[in-house]
């Protein structure tokens, strides 16, 4: 995946730091957006929710606007220990940076980290069936659906589409 040169110059990446948490918590604009990030999160997102989840994750990564030095996107990777698969998790981009190359840069960084830092040959993700923007984005980047899962939290049932990409 190639990110346009202007996006590469506009963004930098680094590991998640505690000082990023408050900013990241402002990214989800609604309960539905937060649900797309993680069905385990409760709106509004809090630093404690991120910290609780990230303790079992790899490569928690923040994308920064290189001029403003502010966090604009976040994601991490987790491993399905039963099968040894690596999964992309908690992808979120500030609403001010959607459609401006931050998502594509974030995915490029995460795919490189999965391949080179974790030794993954493939990365998987779960995208909710109602997240049409996310499904279109991941498909554009080459992810292919391989499974559909019906899950529930309490009385709420939801469908996720599992997608994968060979690295």
Keywords summarizing the entry:
seven-stranded mixed sheet, globular, alpha+beta, 6 helices, 37% strand, 167 residues
Structure, explained:
- By secondary structure, the chain is of the alpha+beta class.
- The chain is 30% helix and 37% strand.
- It has a 7-stranded mixed sheet.
- The radius of gyration is 15 Å and the shape is globular.
Give the total of beta strands: 7
The DSSP helix count reads 6
Main sheet, how many strands, which sense, barrel?
A: 7 strands, mixed
- How is the largest sheet built, in terms of strand order? 1-2-3-4-5-7-6
The level of helicity is 25-40%
**Rg, nearest Å:** 15 Å
Strand-and-helix sequence, N→C?
A: HEHHHEEEHEHEE
In percent, how much strand structure appears in the residues?
Answer: 35-45%
Low-confidence stretches: none
What is the averaged pLDDT score? 94
Overall form: globular
Ends: how far apart?
10 Å
Q: What structural class do the secondary elements suggest?
A: alpha+beta
Task: Summarize this entry quickly.
The protein is built from six helices and seven strands. It has helices at 5-10, 21-24, 31-37, 47-54, 102-117, 132-140, and strands spanning 11-15, 58-65, 70-80, 85-93, 122-128, 144-153, 156-166.
Give the secondary structure arrangement, pairings included.
Layout: H1 5-10, E1 11-15, H2 21-24, H3 31-37, H4 47-54, E2 58-65, E3 70-80, E4 85-93, H5 102-117, E5 122-128, H6 132-140, E6 144-153, E7 156-166
Parallel strand pairs: 4-5
Antiparallel strand pairs: 1-2, 2-3, 3-4, 5-7, 6-7
């Amino acid at each position: 995946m190639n990110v346009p040169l202007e996006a590469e110059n506009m963004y930098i990446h680094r590991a998640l730091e505690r000082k990023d948490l408050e900013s990241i918590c402002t990214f989800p604009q609604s309960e539905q957006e937060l649900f797309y990030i993680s069905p385990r999160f409760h709106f509004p997102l809090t630093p404690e929710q991120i910290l609780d989840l990230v303790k079992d994750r790899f490569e928690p990564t923040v994308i920064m606007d290189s001029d403003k030095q502010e966090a604009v996107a976040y994601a991490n990777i987790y491993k399905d220990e039963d099968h040894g698969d690596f999964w992309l998790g908690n992808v979120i981009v500030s609403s001010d940076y959607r459609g401006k190359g931050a998502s594509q840069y974030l995915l490029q960084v995460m795919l490189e980290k999965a391949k080179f830092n974790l030794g993954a040959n493939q990365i998987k993700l779960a995208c909710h069936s109602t997240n049409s923007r996310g499904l279109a984005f991941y498909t554009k980047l080459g992810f292919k659906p391989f499974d559909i899962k019906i899950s529930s939290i309490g009385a709420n049932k939801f469908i996720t589409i599992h997608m994968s990409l060979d690295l």
